[in-house]
Fold each of these.
Amino acid sequence: MRIEFKQVRSTLVVKLSGEFDMLIAEKLRREIDSRLDSKQISNLIINLEKVTFIDSSGLGVIIGRYKKIHAQKGHMYIVGAAPSIEKILVFSGINKLIPIYKNEQDIINI
């Protein structure tokens, strides 16, 4: 898995590619939390455009980061999920907590 971080003002964008599974989940959790704890972040965007697989540990990282950013009165968004990944997000109910958009530009326009 490849992970890219970008901060635009108070928004942290995390772009993932590859398999989002238990092998990367803990590392990703630590890296996101470190940035959320050390910087003035009020929005978190998880870009899943290039994610080919997600398991329960990946879903757990997403839900945990939602709880953390929400506790800080921030907002979280998911963008770019392929239909198969979006289906898993919907079946898990994550879409009821975190809005899912086609691309980052859709969030900027809200």
Note: The beta strands are 2-8, 11-20, 43-54, 75-79, 100-101.
Amino acid sequence: MADKSKCPSCGGEVTPGKVDVERRWQGRLVIIEGVPAHICRQCGETYFDGEVVMEMERLKKAVSVPGERYIQVPVRPFKVASQ
């Protein structure tokens, strides 16, 4: 992000923080915890530095990572209720 103090979307204040990110790779859902980010306090938009994006790409494609854990996630199809 060029100017880390202003949100490009809404002009709000952007502050550093950490977020959890969900990515998909070859049909798998991968959750990456504690990712450094720039977060807009006004609209909630999240921005990442280039090196952070590169590391997230590496992590999502990795076969395994030391310290990783697994959770079960239900997958439910969306169906519109008939009227």
Note: The chain has one helix and three strands.
Amino acid sequence: MGQQQLLLIILGVIIVGIAIAVGLQLFQSGSVGANQDAMINDIMNIAAHAQQYMIRPGSMGGGGGSFTDYTLPGRLQSTGNGTYEVTSATNEGVTIVGTSVIHDGTVTLNFTRIVVDGDGVPTGDTDVYSWSSTGVFDVGS
């Protein structure tokens, strides 16, 4: 009887150990996904700010129809999710790169403006956003 009880205890310890390992793995993958989602949300807020800058007349401190000279305000440069920078700001669009402060990964957004004719019909490419991810975020992208 003693050997059977010892075997059951060992088996129970192994099963609990496997369950803990699986739980930690699930928590880690959830944490990575949550951080990526939060960074995408932050970048979308920055893209909205860039859009506001682009449509604001130059006389009011805006871009007057261009993203050229757009810079991030200090409050948008860093959050609890990541640090962000504008790597390119041209007449056509802006590129925003976010680097995670929690995990080893980056998220990049290329945000372009849509040019429309007098009837409101797009005259060029209508793909406004293009995303890319590197590092640990490659798993979920």
Note: The longest helix spans residues 2-55.
